[in-house]
Amino acid sequence: MVVPRHISLESSNLTKRRQRSSKLGSQENINDDQNSDSNLRKIVHRDIQRQRRKEMGTLYTPLRSLLPHEYVTYRY
């Protein structure tokens, strides 16, 4: 049986489309993983910076109390 040339081309195009779509699907999974890693890093960074600011505030409080009242500026 002789298969017309256009049928074999269509089947190869379908195969290529399937390969591309499977590659795109795996790239989406990679992007999702990278996004979740990026979001996790942002959350961790935010928490670390918040903790650092709290610690600096507690360290500055005793130093502020040693200054004369004329030099202390209060934030409201």
TrEMBL record:
Record keywords, A-Z: Nucleus, Transcription, Transcription regulation
Q: A Gene Ontology molecular-function term?
A: protein dimerization activity
Q: Where in the cell is it found?
A: Nucleus
Q: Please name the SUPFAM superfamilies in this protein's record.
A: HLH, helix-loop-helix DNA-binding domain
- InterPro entries per the UniProt record, alphabetical: HLH_DNA-bd_sf
Q: GO cellular component terms? A: nucleus
Q: Does the keyword Transcription apply?
A: yes
Report the main location listed first in the record: nucleus
Enumerate the residue ranges of region (Disordered): 1-40
Keyword tRNA-binding (UniProt): no
State the protein's name: BHLH domain-containing protein
